[in-house]
Structures are given as C-alpha cells and as structure tokens.
Write a structure and sequence with these properties.
single chain; 188 residues; alpha+beta; Cyclophilin; eight-stranded antiparallel sheet; 3 helices; 20% helix; globular
Length: 188
C-alpha cells in the first residue's frame, strides 16, 4: 500500500509540475553547459516519480552552477552534486523511491538517476550515457534520452580527467570544470 501511495503521489506530482496529463507529449530538459547544449526528452509517461523529482529540481534552479564531477569516455557523464570548488549540494527533497520501466533503458544518450547502489532511489545526481550501457537496465532509473546535443555528451565524456575513480567504477573528475549553467524545462 505504501508503494502505491508513493507512486500515486509521484504521478500526481508529475502531472501538476509538468502539465503532462495523459496523451500529451513529454517535456524537454535543456541542459546548458559551458561546452554546449544538450536537449533531453523526459519519460514522464514511463518514469513519473523520477521525472517529477528532476523537473522540480530544475525548475527550482538547483542544478545552476553545478559541474559534471565524474566523466568517462564510452561510459557516462555525471552531475548534480558539486560546485566547481568541490562543495557538495544536497537535494532539499531527499531520496526518491527507485523506479524502473522496460521501455526506459540505458541506450546511447539515456539520462539516468545516479544512486548509492543497485535499485536504490536517487535524489539529485544524474548521469547521461556515452554509448549504450545496458548492464545498468533495471538497476538504475533511466528517465529520458538525448534528442539533441549527443556530440556535447561525447565531448564532455572524452575530456581529460584525473582518473580518481579508475579502474572501477571508472572515470574521474574533469581536469577543467564542465559547468551546468542552467537546466530549463520546456514543452515539446
């Protein structure tokens, strides 16, 4: 019953925050970075709890000025946690319930909720896949896909990093800051 109530709340939040009330198109997240712009279609129809959380944070300006703090070529770029000076920023809304959908997989350009483990809900951190990462399917909450700017994702992922997370889970912090200027939500 508790899961049903949380899911119903997530669907209600998604509808009220995004205006997606069934039959309407999903919203687009426009991620403006100092390396270019990435446009992502959010899967509100498949992942209502996760997308509602992301939309609320974006509309609050939560992500403005944060950096992609973990990158790896042919894997992913991750952000939503740190400022350029390394100071951490935590979501004011806490952790959300883990959510999965067979139609939301880790294809090239998928955006997914980062978390502390397999099938654990996330809060504000997200990553965008550089290449398909299907071993993550069902374990992390993919909640959208890049529709423009995949070349920007690839450029960010291939930027030099410090290797601080090699070999597993891999990657590291970029040697030069890759800043999320803003994330805005638009209608499709």
């Amino acid at each position: 019953m508790k899961k049903f109530i949380i899911l119903a709340f997530g669907i209600l939040m998604a509808s009220s925050l995004s205006g997606c009330t069934g039959g309407e198109k999903n919203h687009i997240a426009v991620i403006d970075t100092n390396m270019g712009t990435i446009k992502v279609e959010l899967y509100e129809d498949k992942m209502p709890v996760t997308t509602a959380n992301f939309i609320k944070l974006a509309n609050d300006g939560f992500y403005d000025g944060l950096v992609f703090h973990r990158i790896k070529d042919n894997f992913m770029i991750q952000g939503g946690l740190q400022y350029p000076d390394g100071t951490m920023k935590q979501s004011p809304y806490g952790t959300i319930e883990f959510e999965s959908h067979p139609g939301a997989t880790h294809v090239d350009g998928a955006i997914s909720m980062a978390s502390t483990g397999i099938q654990v809900g996330g809060s504000s951190q997200f990553f965008i896949c550089d290449g398909p990462q299907h071993f993550l399917d069902g374990n992390y909450a993919a909640f959208g896909v890049v529709i423009e700017g995949l070349n920007v994702v690839q450029s960010i992922a291939s930027a030099p990093h410090d290797g601080s997370l090699e070999p597993n889970p891999g990657g590291g912090r970029p040697l030069e800051d890759i800043i999320i200027n803003t994330i805005t939500i638009e209608e499709q």
